[in-house]
Design goal:
By secondary structure, this protein is α+β, with helices and mostly antiparallel strands.
């Protein structure tokens, strides 16, 4: 490494030039991968010990603008947010820059995809209502969960930077609705729904512990099993008996963009179990702890059979 490459003035100049190049890319209709490689090489030539805040933020904006390195970039965003909070600074201004670089997409742990905030709200909630009715006709109540529930309670709609809809499908309780019984019911439901053309069959091939409803326009509608047992509520993958069944059931209805959807009876309690006490504070870098979920629901996952796959939150 040349001595000047570790000089703060040089590093700052590199970061500024990369930001200017990002602005040029955002103003253009196309974003050439070779241009990203050129700019990436310039940034990576800076020694790791010299990479400060300006370098890190330019690096993230570059990757966002050119839709590169999604996993690494999402982790870097999380670290930038943590540093800003630790220093008493607001992360929101930098996140607005990120949203501009990303538009009309978003970045989640799943990768780059169309942001829900870019979709027609009426079409999104019409799909939720349709899926709810389809499964309701089979005897399975459906309620919003995870990020979709968070958006409705905290923001009155979808989280703009989210990329999918999360629904919980409540399995009926009987004497066998323990981990093994819930897994059996979930397998049977998925088999019937798949035959009826109500599931995304390509997603079924992943053999994940949840499934995805068939939907138009590339909208992802993920379905997660939930079940009451012995007065407690189990909602894969976030709630393992921490809540009483009456905290969730019976669900309550809400009209959203002219469509009927269903929420847990005490949604704030569900959100606190899912996201912790800070659920009211927006965190576009949130990453769900799937390893912990698999440990806590080990019996349920084991009875599903097949290989353990990487989940999508």
């Amino acid at each position: 490494m040349a001595p000047e490459q570790g000089d703060p003035a040089h590093v700052g100049q590199v970061a500024r030039e990369v930001r200017w190049a990002v602005e040029e890319a955002l103003a253009g209709a196309e974003r050439d991968a070779s241009r990203w490689e050129e700019l990436r090489e310039r940034l990576d030539a800076v020694g790791s010990s010299a990479r400060g805040r300006a370098w890190r933020e330019a690096s993230v904006l570059l990757d966002l603008a050119f839709r590169q390195r999604p996993g690494r970039t999402h982790r870097q965003l999380g670290r930038i947010r943590q540093r800003r909070i630790a220093q008493g600074e607001d992360f929101a201004p930098f996140w607005r820059e990120c949203e501009r670089a990303l538009a009309p997409c978003t970045l989640t742990p799943h990768g780059y995809d169309v942001a829900l905030g870019q979709r027609d709200p009426g079409a999104v909630w019409a799909t939720v209502e349709r899926v709810t009715e389809q499964l309701g006709e089979r005897g399975y109540p459906v309620l919003v969960t995870s990020g979709t529930l968070l958006g409705l309670v905290r923001e009155g709609g979808v989280i703009a930077h989210d990329d999918d809809i999360d629904l919980a499908v409540v399995l009926p309780e009987d004497d066998t609705t323990d981990a093994a019984g819930a897994a059996r019911q979930w397998r049977e439901l998925r088999a019937r729904a798949a035959l009826a053309g109500q599931l995304d069959l390509a997603f079924e091939e992943r053999r994940a512990s949840h499934c995805r409803a068939a939907a138009d326009g590339g909208l992802k509608v993920d379905l997660f099993p939930a079940w009451p047992h012995a007065g407690r509520m189990f909602m894969w993958p976030h709630t393992y008996g921490e809540l009483a069944a009456e905290d969730v059931l019976p669900p309550v209805s809400r009209r959203v963009a002219g469509h009927q959807v269903w929420l847990p009876r005490h949604p704030e309690a569900v959100l606190e179990v899912n996201y912790g006490p800070g659920w009211r504070d927006p965190d576009p870098t949130f990453r769900f702890d799937w390893d912990r979920a698999h440990e806590r629901f080990a019996g349920f996952v084991a009875h599903l059979g097949g290989r353990r796959s990487r989940e999508a939150s």
